[in-house]
Design goal:
The complex is a heterodimer.
Chain A: H1 2-9, H2 15-20, H3 32-54, H4 73-87, H5 96-102, E1 121-123, E2 136-137, E3 148-149, E4 153-156, E5 159-164, E6 167-172, E7 180-185, E8 192-193, E9 201-204, E10 210-219, E11 223-230, E12 238-245, E13 248-255, E14 258-266, E15 282-285, E16 288-291, E17 297-298, E18 307-315, E19 321-328, E20 334-336, E21 340-353, E22 356-369, E23 376-384, E24 393-396, E25 399-415, E26 420-437, E27 442-447, E28 456-463, E29 466-472, E30 478-479, E31 481-485, E32 493-496, E33 500-501, E34 503-511, E35 514-520, E36 527-535, E37 538-547, E38 550-552, E39 560-562, E40 567-574, E41 582-591, E42 594-602, E43 611-615, E44 618-624, E45 630-636
Parallel strand pairs in A: 17-19
Antiparallel strand pairs in A: 1-12, 2-4, 3-13, 4-5, 5-6, 6-7, 8-10, 9-10, 10-11, 11-12, 13-14, 14-18, 15-16, 18-19, 20-21, 21-22, 22-23, 22-25, 24-25, 25-26, 26-27, 28-29, 29-31, 31-32, 34-35, 35-36, 36-37, 38-40, 39-40, 40-41, 41-42, 43-44, 44-45
Chain B: H1 3-11, H2 16-37, H3 40-57, H4 66-85, H5 92-103, H6 116-129, H7 132-142, H8 148-155, H9 159-179
Helix pairs in contact in B: 1-2, 2-3, 2-4, 3-4, 7-9, 8-9
Classes of the chains: A mainly beta, B mainly alpha.
Chain lengths: ~650, ~180
């Protein structure tokens, strides 16, 4: 009982001791094993989660090594890198964490698909030649002698061949008796001609028996038809051959009975590298479609576009394919010399230093020779600046001369996390001239930044040892015209006119040191023709003629240039209002230091497609209305012809 | 509901006093009783008896801590019940504690003490003199009737450590009671 009493007696211990020993207050001992297991598990999970969230996505272009056995593998690698950079979005999520964050916002990525494939050229044999007693007369002021450029009008001594709206109109050259002789409507097979997208041109063979018509079309797809027409009897024009190219037509040349057709082939969206027809231009020959072989493709180390300039060489008479090649990324200006095709591409060379980007515009020019059995790659060169047009390049005496508009910009990018901004620090524009040795493809001479700061190249004309360059700040409507003496590339000298009001968009060498500039006047509202003469101390303006309140044709081929008779002609829209304007054809003659207007004639609207020539006292003009109706007139030129 | 409010219900002879007591401390009292008796039915009966004793005790009592007040009532009832049922139902744990208690019951020769107040005072003075951990172990063992294992787990000690502490404390308590001339 004593024990029991004691236990009962313990009931009287103070409450504080009872509370102190309350089991509920007992701290559970720290279970290290359990803690370690849980901590380890959590650590592993967190590590795995972090890895999944923050491991960066694989960067760089996708692996294309599975195509290593392809003939086009070097091309595939370049295209792969190009498309990767094109599709690269620096703001795209770089890991799963950013991806999940971005998914809260609207985020969409488009898929890409392969471009349609189609053969480039199909050739069908045609009828044999006929006979003609015509004599070829050149009306196009070709850039290079012997390298004929296609045009809307060609002629012989007896007939005019004028192309409009897919129709060849033949006119007789007979003064007051001139008339429409025949018309031939070109029809396309499995394609539709688009009159509102008219870049058609034609050639007349030197024997005047064949007219080659080049007809671009856009339906059902971009393409170009080449029709060979027998004009042995101009009154009975017939189709001999036809060829279809599945490229967008850019330009062409006729040299020694061979037509160089230059077009643009766009790869389009991301191609299927397992199928070469999705990224290589194809040619149809002998009813077989073949991709241009790899050794026929010229491309830079780093592509700047997924467009080819395709060059095909056809026999003028039979349209038989004689060779083909393609420039990849070189899809801007094309210049054709007596032996070579030059194609250019522009790109930007950026250098970043101390958060300041210096961007310099550059141009790379690649060259194919076409004089041999095939089209062969020759070489390439890069120069600073951009070329304006074909006239900015010229091959002469083993040198390639190039005039560029240079552009260097400096800017700083900043990003405060919410907005990105660019601050332009400096922008320099000028003009430069380069001489490249075609045997080494190295720049052997250069004249950098010869123009006043801020000016851009408006027109260039090479003439043997000389070069004429008009630069201007378009906003201020004033220009100097520079004359370069290129006779000694080691000592290139130049002189200029000083600042002249207005500027010239075309420069025409008239020979004997004379130059004609066609462009805008001092206030930009009119047309100005100006004659320049090379002088001992510079280039001086001899005379000018201004047509106020007028627009002029900027198509060089639309100008009548008759050096023999010192005639210059062009179409002009005068007094333009919203609903109407007067379209006239102006004919000037340079005589005794002055531009004399000898004819002004109302013509149909489209001054860009007006073509004219002077022959035996008559001005023959062809033009077309915007409604695609042809217009022709033979105008006698007398001393009082001008209105 | 806090203790003060529940005690007030008892003083107001409100029937909800028992209901609130059961809600607040029913499980606690059951645990105290079950630990001694080892039998659910007996433990429940003890809890019910606790409510009855509490109703009778308040008033005059007005405890500040209802948990300890009720715990004591339950413990007392459970022990008495245990001794009453001892012949038929033996709880190993309680038996063991009773054996342990023998160790610090003073030997014969010392005059018996019948004054519970003196005993209570002596016990409390002894407990106050102990180190905290030893005191907690002692009270857990002999008031809460906890097993050595439970005490060891709750305090993060080994069982042997608890046993040794209990042995030493019992010896000290025995010596203390002898010194105070207290016999039970």
């Amino acid at each position: 009982m004593k024990n029991e009493k004691l236990l009962l007696a313990l009931n009287h211990i103070d409450d504080e001791f009872i509370r102190e020993a309350d089991p509920k207050k007992a701290k559970k001992p720290f279970n290290w094993l359990k803690f370690t297991v849980i901590a380890a598990s959590v650590t592993i999970l967190l590590t795995a989660l972090n890895l999944w969230l923050f491991i960066p996505y694989e960067t760089g272009a996708p692996d294309v090594s599975q195509y290593a056995d392809s003939e086009y593998y070097p091309l595939i690698q370049k295209l792969n890198e190009y498309y990767y950079l094109q599709n690269y979005d620096k703001n795209a999520p770089k890991n799963n964490f950013e991806m999940l964050t971005a998914m809260l916002n609207d985020w969409d990525r488009s898929n890409t698909g392969a471009a349609e494939t189609r053969p480039a050229v199909s050739v069908r044999p045609g009828a044999p030649d006929g006979s003609s007693d015509q004599q070829y007369e050149e009306v196009t002021d070709n850039q290079v002698e012997g390298v004929i450029e296609a045009d809307l009008m060609k002629r012989s001594d007896r007939y005019i061949y004028y192309l409009h709206n897919g129709t060849l109109s033949v006119y007789s050259i007979a003064g007051n008796e001139s008339r429409l002789v025949s018309e031939y409507v070109c029809t396309l097979k499995d394609a539709s001609y688009n009159p509102w997208y008219d870049y058609s041109e034609l050639y007349l063979s030197t024997d005047c028996k064949t007219v080659t018509v080049i007809l671009p079309y856009t339906t059902p797809r971009n393409g170009c038809a080449v029709l060979s027409l027998d004009v042995t009897d101009p009154m009975k024009v017939t189709l001999k051959n036809e060829v279809y190219l599945n490229y967008f037509y850019q330009s062409s040349r006729l040299v020694d009975g061979e037509i160089l057709l230059i077009g643009e082939y766009v790869i389009g969206k991301t191609p299927d590298f397992g199928d070469a027809t999705t990224f290589v231009p194809q040619i149809e020959s002998d009813n077989e479609t073949l991709c241009i072989p790899m050794d026929g493709i010229v491309s830079p180390d780093t592509l700047t576009s997924a467009r080819y300039t395709v060059v095909c060489k056809l026999d003028e008479n039979t349209l038989a394919l004689k060779g083909s090649a393609a420039f990849l990324s070189y899809s801007q200006e094309v210049y054709v010399s007596r032996e070579n095709v030059y194609a250019s591409r522009s790109y930007t060379d950026s250098v970043i230093k101390d958060n300041v980007t210096t961007a310099t515009r550059m141009t790379e020019i690649a060259c194919l020779s076409y004089g041999g059995e095939s089209l062969d790659y020759v070489g390439s060169v890069s120069v600073a600046g951009t070329v304006k047009d074909q006239y900015s390049m010229d091959e002469y005496d083993g040198l390639l001369r190039v005039v560029t508009t240079t552009s260097v910009q400096k800017f700083a990018e900043s990003n405060d996390g919410e907005t990105a901004s660019i601050a332009f620090l400096q922008s320099d524009t000028n003009a430069s001239l380069y001489c490249i040795d075609l045997s080494t493809w190295e720049v052997v001479a250069e004249v950098k930044d010869f123009a006043p700061d801020g000016e851009t190249v408006q027109s260039v004309r090479f003439d043997g040892d000389a070069a004429y360059v008009c630069t201007a700040v378009v906003v201020t409507l004033s220009d100097p015209v520079f004359f370069f003496d290129l006779s000694d590339v080691n000592n290139i000298t130049y002189k200029d006119t000083g600042t002249i009001e207005g500027f010239s968009t075309s420069l025409i060498s008239f020979g004997d040191g004379y130059l004609i500039g066609i462009g805008v006047n001092d206030n930009g509202s009119g047309v100005k023709l100006e004659v320049y003469e090379e002088a001992e101390d510079g280039v001086k303006s001899v005379c000018s003629y201004v047509i106020e309140n007028a627009n002029y044709s900027t198509d060089y081929k639309s100008y009548l240039i008759d050096r023999e008779n010192l005639l210059i002609g062009l179409g002009v829209d005068e007094d333009p209002t919203f609903l109407r304007y007067d379209t006239n054809y102006y004919l000037f003659q340079y005589e005794e230091g002055a531009l004399k207007l000898i004819s002004k004639r109302a013509i149909m609207e489209d001054i860009q497609r007006a073509r004219a020539f002077y022959e035996d006292g008559y001005l023959y003009i062809c033009s077309v209305t915007y409604d695609q109706f042809a217009w022709f007139e033979a105008i006698p030129i007398t001393s009082d012809t001008a209105e | 509901m806090d203790d003060k409010t529940i005690v007030k219900l008892y003083w107001e002879r409100s029937e909800t006093a028992i209901e609130e007591t059961a809600k607040q401390y029913g499980k606690y009292c059951y645990a105290v009783a079950f630990r001694i008796l080892g039998n659910a039915q007996d433990a429940e009966e003890c809890v019910n008896d606790t409510y009855a004793d509490a109703w009778n005790a308040m008033p005059p009592h007005k405890p500040n801590r209802l948990a300890t007040f009720l715990g004591k009532l339950t413990r007392n009832i459970a022990l008495n019940r245990y001794y009453y049922n001892r012949a038929e139902k033996r709880t190993p744990q309680t038996e063991l504690i009773l054996h342990e208690v023998e160790e610090f019951v003073p030997q014969a020769g010392i005059s018996e003490i019948t004054d519970e107040i003196l005993l209570k005072d002596a016990i409390n003075r002894f407990l106050r003199s102990l180190p905290k951990q030893a005191r907690i172990i002692f009270v857990r063992r002999y008031w809460y009737m906890s097993s050595v294992k439970e005490i060891a787990t709750d305090l993060g000690l080994s069982e042997s450590n608890v046993k040794v502490t209990l042995l030493r404390t019992r010896n000290q308590f025995k010596a203390y009671l002898e010194k105070e001339g207290i016999e039970i």
